[in-house]
Amino acid sequence: MAGQRKDLSIGLDCGTGGARALICDARGQVLGMADSTYPTEYPHPGWATQNPAEWWQAACAAVGGAIAAAGVDPARIAAICAGGTSSTLVALDAAQDPVGPAILWMDNRASPQAHRIEASGHPVLRRSRAGVSAETALPKILWLKDNAPEAYADTRWFVEMTDFIALRLSGQLTLGQNHTINRWFCNPRDGGWPVDFLDGIGLEGICERFPVWMPALGDPIGAITAQAAEAMGLSPQTLVVAGGTDAYVAMVGLNTLRPGETALITGTSHLVLPVVAEDIEIEGLFGPHPDCVTQGSFVMEGGQVSSGAILRWWHDLLHGGANGYDAMLAEAEAAPPGANGLVVLDFWQGNRNPFTDYDLQGAIWGLTLKHARADVTRALMESVALGTANILGRLQASGQKVRAMTLAGGVLRSPFWAQMHADATGVSLRIPEIGEATAFGAAITAAVGAGLHPSLKAAADAMVRIRSEIQPDPIRHARFRAQMEIYLETHAALRPLMHQQALRSRASPAMR
Questions:
Q1: For residue 360, what is the DSSP state?
Q2: Of residues 470, 283, 496, 275, the one with CA closest to residue 385
Q3: How far is CA 73 from the centre of its chain?
Q4: Are 28 and 463 in contact (CB under 8 A)?
Q5: Which run of H or E residues covers position 395?
Q6: pTM exceeds 0.85
Q7: pLDDT in tens, 71-95
Q8: Is 91 left (phi over 0), alpha (psi -120 to 50) or beta?
Q9: In degrees rounded to 5, what are phi and psi of residue 262?
Q10: E-strand spans in 125-168?
Q11: How many alpha carbons lie under 13 Å from residue 10 in its C-beta half-sphere?
């Protein structure tokens, strides 16, 4: 219809387990949401892969479902933006089709390559003083060159999951600036790509395989293609807007965009993301990443590779295909704090921060015949909260005082687990009205790209609202401090054995 107002935006969250689409208006009122899942394959210990075609199928289903749930005319949707898992590497051939399965962010097969990159000692690594993460794209690209030379030779372009979704939406090949800054060692303030570093680690000429167009978060990319519009049920006039790393997009959805504010993003993995005004370094954390969300500020990052994934793993062992989360969490809440002496290390896929050691594995010890499954569940949940507290401790020790964090993601579904995170960290948690922060942040970003708001900060101020706040309990916090001592002692004691086991695994015929 001529003159149809275009006052809505749609955000896509392409997460580890599936795609979520959210439609909202320019005031932040959510009108509809829908989900669609896709599987993960684990072909070897430490490996994790996904099929990009299944991402696209799920994204189309989720967008169509959200439009149906909202009951709105698609012509009102001004723009769409996607956030996605970061460091999920997609290799594309000359026809811009995937060469093979995408290497998922949590895949840690490239640990030896990460160690080699770290050993270069190049100045560009100052933002990875914690150590080079095996999750990130460059170690994975180097792994392909070392171990899959045919796939490497067939690859014309290396991109991230979000770029693949933007490509399918718009037909335009991009490499989003958000993740090239926070994951790929690109720094627009310092000339862009560090070519001498890339050459020195064995990736000579690799920049020729990186798309030249690197749009910033919120930049317009172009109109949706006719094929994508038909597949999703959108208007051909819908604008595609550049997204980025899911957790960083979630910062928009939480309005943690100014120095002194911190986001706690929870889900399959956890991320603590403080915004700082100065170019500082903190031992054990990644960053500072300049201008990767908003211009003029820096983001620090501390993450846990497996957090919600550990609880899902345990749930699936107990319940298979049935949904037993409510009963499982109720049992854990009834178990005593400290889980009758069980100690767990939350390293199921290695440790991102503050140890940055992908040769670590998960551990449960202290088991006796007294223990029940509720104790194990509680100990697993406590270990994740302790992992978050361990990251926060590095921030506090550096003089970066964190008094509150704005919480998003899966932990919001369990008030018991949310309170546990407040108790373990000793800081209050701010609870937003919209907990699906990545999808919401992507919708806010889409609104900015479409001109419905002048900037990300202005849009977040107008659209994000805080519902409540959770305060830590001083007595429980003191108990968690005692548990932290055992957690750290356990890591120190088991680290050498875990490294030996990782070497054995890589040497086994099944891993070759």
A1: -
A2: 470
A3: 32
A4: yes
A5: helix 373-397
A6: yes
A7: 999 999 999 999 999 999 999 999 9
A8: beta
A9: -135, 135
A10: 157-160
A11: 38
